[in-house]
Amino acid sequence: MGTEEGIVQISVASVVEEVLQQGKGLSDIDLASRKAEEASLRRYVAAGWLRKTIGVVAAKDLPAEPSEEDFRLGLRSGIVLCNVLNKVQPGAVQKVVEAPPDSVNVPDGAALSAYQYFENVRNFLVVVEEMGIPSFEASDLEKGGKSSRIINCVLALKSYSEWKHGGGSGSWKYSGNSKPSSAGKQFVRRNSEPFMNLISRTSSIINKSPDSSDVGHEAREMVNPSSLQMLVHDLLSDKKQEDIPFIVENMLSKVMEEFEHRLASQNEQSKTSHKETVVPTTDESPLELTCEETQVAIIKDEEKAPDEGTCGRVDIDDDGASTPVVRQLMLVEHQHKEVQQLKSTLHDAKVDLQSLQLKYQEEVSNLGKHLHGLAHAASSYQKVLEENRKLYNQVQDLKGNIRVYCRVRPFLPGQPNSLSTVDHLDDGNITITTPSKYGKEGKKSFTFNKVFGPSGTQEEVFADTQPLIRSVLDGYNVCIFAYGQTGSGKTHTMTGPSDLTKETLGVNYRALSDLFNISEQRKDVISYDISVQMVEIYNEQVRDLLTPDGVNKKYPSCT
Ligand SMILES: Nc1ncnc2c1ncn2[C@@H]1O[C@H](COP(=O)(O)OP(=O)(O)OP(=O)(O)O)[C@@H](O)[C@H]1O
C-alpha cells in the first residue's frame, strides 16, 4: 500500500497475488479439517435422506449423524440400500434379504448372513449402474476409508429421486462430486481453467488499458500477469482434485477479506486527509463538506505528491463524475449527517427523559409529603382515639362500676291496675306502698342508678347499659345480670318476648349486635374473638342454657 493521501491504491491484482503467495503456505491442517468437515456433512445428508426415505425404524442401524464407521456398518447388509432403491424405483430389487428378528437365534448366522447380504449389495449395485448412478465397489462396505464413494452414490440416488419427484422433466444429470479419478493432474488443468481464464482476462484488460492510465500502467508495474498465472499454477498443480475447491474457496475468501481490509484502511486515510485539508476555514464539522469540495481536496493532494507511487489506484474521472473515493466520501458524509441527526434525536429524547424524570421526582416527592402528612394525621387520630377511650372508660368508672337499675313490669293483660304497689317513681327513686301497713311504715323508698317505669321500652333500658358493654372491647370485664322474682320480667328484659321484633329485642341481642358492629368497624386496627355463654343460676344451681344436647347441663358446684 502506498502512503499517498486521498488516493485509493488498492489493486485487485496485487491483492490476489499477495493472497496467492500466502496461499502457497496454506495449512495442510486447515485443509484436512475442512475436508473432514465437508465429508461429515455429506455423510449426514446421505444418512438423513436414507432414514427419511424408509423411516427411522427400518433404518434403525443407521444413526442420523453417523461416523464413517457407523455409516459403513449401517449399510453393510445392503438392506437399507435395497429398500431405499425400491422406494425410489419400485421393484428395482426383486428380493431383499431381510435381517432375522433379534429374538431369532440363527445357527452359524454370521457366515450365512454375510453371504445373503452380499446378494443385497450386489443387486443394489447392478441396478444403480443400470440407472447411470455413480456406483461403488461391494468391498467398499467391508473395509473402512472408502465411504466417500458410497456417500456419492447415495447422494446421486437422492438427486435422482428428487428429480423424479419433481416430475422427471428432461434428462436426469447428477451434478454432485463425481467418482474420484486418479487423473489428478488432468483434473487440475480442467478445473483451474476458468480461474486461469479469469486471471488471463484480468491481465488482458490491464494490458489493453490506455497507456496513460494509472490503472493499467501501475498494475503492470506491480503485477506481471504471467507471474500471477505461474503462481496459480504452482499453487494448484500439486494439489489433489478434491482439494482444489477448498483451496480456491479459501483463497477467494482471503482475497475478499484482504480487499475489504485495505478498503477500510484506505477509507480511514482518506477521511484523515480530508479533515486536515478542509477543517481550518470554517467552524463546520470536517465531514460536512460538499462533494465538490471533496474532489478538490483530493486533487490538491495529488498535486502535492505527484511523484509518489500510484500503482493500481482508482482516481477521479476527468469530468469530475463520482469515483469510488468520492462515492465513499459522500457515503461517509451522508452517514455522518444521519449520525448527527440521530445524535440530535437522542439528545432531544434525553432532555425529554430528564424533564420527565424531574417531573416524576417532584410528584413522588409531593406524594411522599402527602403520605407523611396522612401518616402524621393517622397517628394523631390514633392518639385522640386512645385518649377518647380512656376518657370514656373513666366516665364509666365515675358513673359507677356497679350499677343497679330497677324496672317495673306493666300489668299483664287481664290483671287489675288497682292492685299496684308502686306509689311513686322518678329517675332514680321508687316508692312502694305496703297496703297492710299504715303511715310511714306503709311506704318505702328505694334509690337506684335509674328506675324504668312500666312504660319503659327495651331500647331505653339498653341505652343505659350500652356504654358499659362497649368497655368490653377496650379490655374491661363487664357483667350484666337480671334479678327478680318469678314472672317479674327478667327474661323479657334480657332476651325479649317470644314474638321478637326489632323493638322488643332484649339486652343480650342488642349487646351482641353492638359488639359485632364495633368489631367490624375496628377490624383494620384490631381483631376481636367473640364467644357467647349463657348460664342460669336457679336454686343455687348454675345451668348452661346453650348446651347443644338440649338438656340443661348442670355446672359442677363450686366449693
Ligand atoms: N316490661 C314488660 N312489658 C311487657 N310485658 C312484660 C314486661 N316484663 C315482663 N313481661 C311479661 O311478663 C311475663 C313474665 O315475664 P318473664 O317471663 O320475663 O318473667 P321472669 O322473671 O323471666 O320469670 P321466671 O323467673 O319465672 O322465668 C311474660 O309474659 C312477659 O312477656
From TrEMBL:
Keywords: ATP-binding, Coiled coil, Motor protein, Nucleotide-binding. Pfam families: CH, Microtub_bd. The keyword Nucleotide-binding applies. The keyword Phosphoprotein does not apply. GO terms for cellular component: microtubule cytoskeleton. Residues 40-162 form the Calponin-homology (CH) domain. Residues 172-184 have a biased composition (Polar residues). Residues 401-559 form the Kinesin motor domain. Gene3D superfamilies: Calponin-like domain, Kinesin motor domain. This is Kinesin heavy chain.
